Amino acid sequence: MENIWILAQSESGQPTMIESEQSEGQEHETISVPSDSNSNVKQAVKKGPLGDYSGIILIVLMVVVMYFFLMRGPRKKQQEHKQMVQSLKKNDKVRTIGGIIGTIVDIKDDEITLKIDETNNTKIKVIPSAIGRNLSQGQN
Questions:
Q1: Running DSSP on this structure, what letter comes out for residue 34?
Q2: Nearest residue to 126 via CA among 137, 101, 118, 138
Q3: Residue-wise pLDDT tens digits, 95-127
């Protein structure tokens, strides 16, 4: 009786051991498949180019990019509003953030005087940040 061991690959790609046993006129074949796909085959774990910290660096990079995009929009809008307020001059027609439409009568550093009614000569004073739009220039 002669035992022959053969290392082969199954249809699923897993390594298998085939034992072929020959005795007087009869041939027996036994196939043993490993129960765990990783039991006989060791797989190499590839690390990123930055080693163990590649995942953390990727997350930090994503947070920085998100912060940049989230903060850039409001800062740009704030800068545009500041330029619009600085370009205001006497007799410009403006609308406040509260919806009041008036004409600029006087501009000081910390307040703007608006004439809101021509017949009664009604005036109000507002802070520069309360100006929402310059209607004289047709801005949106």
A1: -
A2: 101
A3: 999 999 999 999 998 999 999 998 999 999 999
**Cα(99)–Cα(11) distance, rounded to whole angstroms?**
75
In a domain, 62, yes or no: no
pTM over 0.85: no
Side chain identity at residue 7, one-letter code: L
User: Does residue 140 belong to any structural domain of this protein?
Assistant: no
pLDDT at residue 62 above 80? yes
- Let me know how many helices (H) and strands (E) the chain has, helices first: 1, 8
CA distance 94 to 131: 7
* Domain contains 101: yes
The parent domain of residue 121 ranges over 89-134
Residue 127 lies in a domain: yes
Q: Which of 118, 110, 119 is nearest to 91 (CA)?
A: 118
CATH assignment at residue 115: 2.30.30
Taking the C-alpha atoms of residue 93 and residue 95, their distance in angstroms, rounded to an integer, is 7
- Give strand pairing partners of 106: 113
Element of type H or E holding 5: strand 2-9
Quickly count: other Cβ atoms within 10 Å of residue 104's Cβ.
19
State both tokens at 107. Answer: 């501009």
